Amino acid sequence: MVNERNQDRLSQLRSRLRLTRSGRPRHLVDELVTPPEEIISRPEVRIRVLGLIAIALVGLLTYRLWSLQVVHTISFSKAVTINATRNVVVPATRGVIVDRQGKALVANSLHYQVTLSANQADLDPTIVPKLAALFNESISTIETRVKNPNYLSYQPAPVATDVSPVVVQYLAEHSGEFPGVAIATTLTRTYPEGGDTAANIIGYVGAINAKELKANAGQGYQPTSAIGKSGVEREYEQFLRGKAGRKQILVSPQGDILGTNKTRRPTPGATVVLNTDIALQRYTQNVLEQQILADRLSIDHRSGLHPAALNGAVVVMDPRTGAVLALASYPSYDLNTWVGGISQTNYQKLLNSGALNDYALQGKYTPGSTFKLITATAALFHRIIPAGLYVRDAGTFVVPNCKGDQAGCTFHDDETEGTGSVNMSLAMARSSDVYFYNLGYLFWNAQSKFGPEPIQQMATSYGLTSQTGIDMPNESSSGVDSPSLRKRLHDLYPKAFPNAQWYTGDNLEMAFGQGGTQVTPIGLANAYATFANGGTRYQPEVAAGVVSPEGTVLQRYAPRGVGAVPLPPQIRNPILQGLIGVVNDPSGTAYDTFRAYATYDRSKFVVAGKTGTASNQAGQEPNSWFVAFAPARQPRYVVLAVVDQGGYGASAAAPIVAKVFNYLAQHPVGPVDLSHAATGQSQTPTTRVATPIP
After folding, report:
1. How far is C-alpha 676 from the geometric centre of its chain's CA atoms?
2. How many percent of the chain have pLDDT more than 70?
3. In the chain, how long is the greatest CA-to-CA distance?
4. What is the distance between the terminal CA atoms of the chain, rounded to a whole angstrom?
5. pTM, 2 dp
6. Tens digits of per-residue pLDDT, 354-382?
7. Whole-angstrom Cα distance, residue 1 to residue 5?
8. pLDDT per position as a tens digit, 417-440
9. Which of left, alpha, beta for 404 (phi over 0: left; psi -120 to 50: alpha)?
10. Fewer CB atoms inside 10 A, N or C side of the chain?
11. Which domains does the chain have, with CATH numbers?
């Protein structure tokens, strides 16, 4: 039975094999074991398969070509353009700065510059040694300049600047020996009135640093840009810098410049017109410097010391508008030092000497008796004492009912014999300390009525507890000593300020400008300008306006009132009479000084002012102050001078002010003329020899 089943299966297998050989599809294994002569040839099948593959490849190639030439044409064209062109920023010509009559204080001078790109230097290694020999520099120095990281490899980097026309001509005649070397022009700041005139007002320009670049992101600055660092150059940077242009250059795959594709011209910067009168500014600077140098050689007849006269400042303002007519600071510097870059050694010297400080804006000095204007105004405003009431000044003030508190009980007048019986006007004229000690005591005893800080509140109205807001950078803030300030300082810095209490003696010292009160020259000048004009506190303005390169007035800065002091006649007149007496009454503290130094007709050009002698630490001469305005009844000028450790106000500061009024009486300051603002840029080529870039 089993054999029959096996026979049937074998018959079925043989039948399948016969079917396969008759033309039905075979399995690959069958063909491998089938003899070649038994395999049937089918070439048409292979041809069809190959044809289908060829058609697919042609279709794929056609699609790819269509995609490249049609679909992505624009994007690939842009990519090719980007690879072939580079955008280069073209800096704008910086605007000029002129005085109120249009005299150029800052202009631009055109200089020649030799440039070479890093790519070109790599292509021809002989160029750098040739340039090093031409400029008498080491090869490594030239290589460092060529590979300046602020420039891209294809951008020409400055190798030497301020190159003489002789060198320019030589390179032009031997251009074949210096492939890739180009002559560019650059504009640098120049100072027609001298680099040492109004340096603190003008300020300087320098290379932008990383911090400035980040702070001005999106403003068009490049790592190679210049930017205003101080003074007007910094304050009015947005107008002076102009608007940079762009140049699209064609570049080969090797980085060589092939030509220029298109250019957008830069827009030159605007002209900034100052309120400064440059002749007055120069005269004021000279007087300040001469007086300080002379003061150092003098002897204080009371102390027997030579005044250190460390530094000083002069401010000249128009009290009717707040316009700053002159602003002198000593020591100062020459702006030409910064042209082309300043060395670290020179910078450190200026820093150590204090020349980089603008003492008119940043100096903070104890005001001494010049502060009596504020105390007098507060006293008459609050009616704490009648203006006509006489007080006996015998040289000493003893605090009533004093039991020996920390501030002491007895206060002495600077004049040991006293100034006699004085009312408000005479107390101002003779600078009676005892009179103002008494006012400080009366205010402290009247806290229940006026509060603890009425004098400080009046100082705030005069602007002496803040900045003035002058349009200059880095102004310091004035500050008046007070109970609240003392407590705040103690809370913040308990070790440095261990005493949080305010005593009667503190109020007495504050009332005549001693203690912790410190004011800036511009702040105190503006306070006296406020009194001079009848009570309107203006924001001091250095700039009068901004004019476009085409002559269009872009900005005109009108007087800006920012506060007011109540000065009705019953308050103002007694104080004014006292200030006039300082200069014109034989008992006034500056009478002898003006009689010695004033050359104008004192009866026609009446000056009102106030001396200040502010005590410093033991062994130091006091700060010397004098501030005045004229003509007294219709003021046009406020003049302030201060000399740090200069001695008595009548000895050091008052002569400076007297001399400035001599000039003003003979040379009245005219109105601002924006129509004469310079519109052209000074571009006179220099003839100096080549100076390597530092």
Report:
1. 26
2. 85
3. 162
4. 115
5. 0.81
6. 999 999 999 999 999 999 999 999 999 99
7. 7
8. 788 999 999 999 999 999 999 999
9. left
10. N
11. 87-274 (3.90.1310.10), 278-544+559-671 (3.40.710.10)
